[in-house]
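REQUEST ID: PR-0412
SUBMITTED BY: lab tech R.K.
PRIORITY: routine
TASK: structure prediction, single protein chain
INPUT:
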Amino acid sequence: MKRVYADNSSTSYPKAPEVSDVIKDFLDNTGCNVGRGGYSDSYDVAMEILDARQAVATMFKAKSAKEVIFTPGVTYSLNMLLCGFLKNGDHVVTTSMEHNSIMRPLHALSKKGVGYDVVSCARDGSLTPYDIIPLIKKETSAIVMTHASNVCGTVLPIYEVAKICKERGIKLIVDCAQTAGTLDIDVQNIDALAFTGHKGLLAPQGIGGFVIKDEFADELEPLITGGTGSRSDEFGQPEFLPDKFESGTMNISAILGLRKAVEYIAQVGIGAIGEKKMRLTSAFLSGLDGVDGVEVVGKRDYTKRVSVVSLNFPKSDNAAVSHTLDNVYGIMTRCGLHCAPIAHKSLGTYPNGTVRFSFGYFNTAREIDYILQSIKAIAATAV
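STATUS: complete
OUTPUT:
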């Protein structure tokens, strides 16, 4: 059976060329730690980690490689940023398109005296930035938001929100899980950007991080303290970046894989990658026009979105459709609430969820045609 992968917003597949080779080479031929050994192999790997940091910094237009902090992923990064910064009495504004990687930390913090309000997004997932302003209070210390919905792909106006934050002295924390490697991102007006490697950056699972401005880092408490390989004569956690937020042994092999993936993206060009994804997405959306029994959730066009498309099948059970796509047609999707129930409520798809298709750089036009043919065949048999 033909197999087609259409779940890239969950994790990209395949990864960038040579990523697995780099990981295997490190594990087979080097394997040592960094910051814990006084020998040349350790020093060489440390320089490779620095190169990886610089590659990420360059991609996001950070001022310095030291502003790049490596973590296991975007969820860890958001927890470190929110729980390390927000205190009893603080207030946060977020949006109704958020993933649980933001909503669950905010819910937990609300039990510790942190307040938050949610600005409503439109039925297509779009946000009018000025709708945030009435929710801002004197206690508001941060706005935290996604760059693009993991449910419907709508891109949110982070740079317009950045202006609102700057005018009021409020921190802006952005989750770019669905946009890194697809859209050009400039962190100069963002206080902290949380990213993950295994989606659009075409890197392995288990590696991500955040980019943080020096002045914001000074206000952030590390949630994890311990060995950093620096200032080992002191019990206090180092205050300088990146060591302040990188305690314990690093996931070196995944970081090296991330570096190779980011280098590949730089070679191909983010613009070229994003353009191909949008071309595939546009063909997919156009092919759904006039198909009875299939509803596109969110924007019907390909502008101001990423390559994530959710469908509802009102005449069928969405879970059954997803099962048929896999077992009959070999098409891999994700069905349900996608860890974003608040987004589904805004989109009008709660509690049933949707069938989500998400296309990556390595998908092809022929695969899009095959997916469309399969959807039409399923819709035609719906009662």
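NOTES: The chain has two domains: 4-14+270-380, 19-268.
REVIEWED BY: pending
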